[in-house]
Amino acid sequence: MWRIARIPGITFGLFLVWKLVLLVTTSQPIPFCDAFFYDGPVVNFLLHGKYCNPSLAAALPISGTELYATYPPLHQLALLIWMSVFGTSALSAMWYQFLLLVGFTVVTYSTLKMLLASRAALNWAGLFCFGITFHERADLLAYLMGGLAIWSCVRARCNAAPRWFWAAAGFAVLSLCSSLQIGGIHLVLLALLLVGDAVLTRRKIPLLPCFASVGVIVALIAFAVVCCPRFWAGFQEHLKATPTVTGVRTPRIFDALKIGRALAGVWVVTAALAWLALTGKLRQALRESYPALLTICAVLTLIMLAGSCLILFFSDMIRMAVYMQPLVVGAFFIACGNAAFPVWPRRALTTLFAVAVLVGSLRAIGMSTVGVQCARDVSRTKATTMIRQELDSTVTGSTVLFSSAYLYDAAQRTNINWIHFGWTLPLGKSEGIAQLRPGKIVLTQFDYYWTFVPMMQELRRRPNPPEFKVRNTTGVVTPDANSKPSNPMKHLAWAPVFVDCTWPGEGKAQ
Prior knowledge:
By secondary structure, this protein is mostly helical. The chain folds into two domains: about 1-30 and about 70-370, no CATH class; about 380-500, no CATH class. The protein is about 65% helix and about 5% strand. It contains 24 helices and five strands. It has helices at about 1-5, 10-25, 35-50, 60-65, 75-85, 90-115, 120-125, 140-160, 165-175, 180-200, 205-225, 230-240, 255-260, 265-280, 280-290, 290-310, 325-335, 345-360, 360-370, 370-375, 380-390, 405-410, 430-435, 445-460, and strands at about 400, 415-420, 440-445, 465-470, 495-500.
């Protein structure tokens, strides 16, 4: 075991093997709340011939009935190619995400190798990959493109090959075309890298690639506004429904805990950099080491994101920062290895990194233990069979609300009105369900305990309340039953919860 542990980059390999085994044996990670929000238009196009997402029709009429326009469409284009070959099932989408994760992991490893990473740097960086447990939506493609942009920038700097700045600019634009938030994060990091390098080394900033990338972005926006007015209207419709900026608020303790857990490794690196700054060693490292500049720029970018998630943005956006953590830790070890620290600080730092790995990997541990137990109780195949049997007996024309993970199968139905449970209007409120008056609701354990139970309690307090008959198919107590905000062990079970609804003035639910 000790010899295996000394293999450079072995932790990256173990991470991918762990992901593969979980996917093959337990169908994890389960598509999360917004997965079908992004994948639905492709599924609907391949099944029914129209590029829209009907499950969003209640909240986003344009994207739900006319033209899907909530985000730039690069993710949907890549997924269309994939699902045209491998089908529109949830499992197909999960394999697509796994292959993107492989590409992202390889790019991160290659970037660190290009920076002449030691064995310790590679293996510590690989351990922090185990914090990446949610990968769905357009995020992974955006991070793959952003990772390639960083890789190209590092290659241009380390190999004295300015032409690679053009590749960095191109990949940055592609990242933005997958996810506006994640593309924006990478643009900030790249800008800090270029400016910092120019200040420290007096090298010229590659202005032509920078201006070209800005020009392309402006041209794409102008094209959407002028030539695709319905797409632009759909984008604005989504922006009004879920603004990224929620308004200035007082930081909440659970948001701070979430951010602290997600970026545990970054906080250790930040503390170590502060110690080096106090001892005067950081300035020397910046002069001599490009990885030190990369570390500081990435830490600053993530600290700005974390601060914004505390007081301005949705706190869940911090999940976007987890993907950068392996690069930050690896670059830190390259720039500020053991030689920069005396014996006792070095041992303390090693202990802190080990604790950070455990804290950041809590959900990975849950997936490997409780998640396996849940899969043995109700597998994805069994859950899909139960849902199909349930829908076969559903009254034609009924409105049925589904969790995201079940919509891939529900989208094949033409006899029911299938709606995304998380996208009723107003969002996250019981009024949205009351307006739709669904005959049936099919939920994951997470959506049931974390969202629907409070809604059900609100609806039951009404003067003329609806009746709900709940049938939970799980045979084990899932961690989702503990719906405290600080609970990291969530969304580990495929077992569906069926809720039959009877509304005032209607007969008994079928």
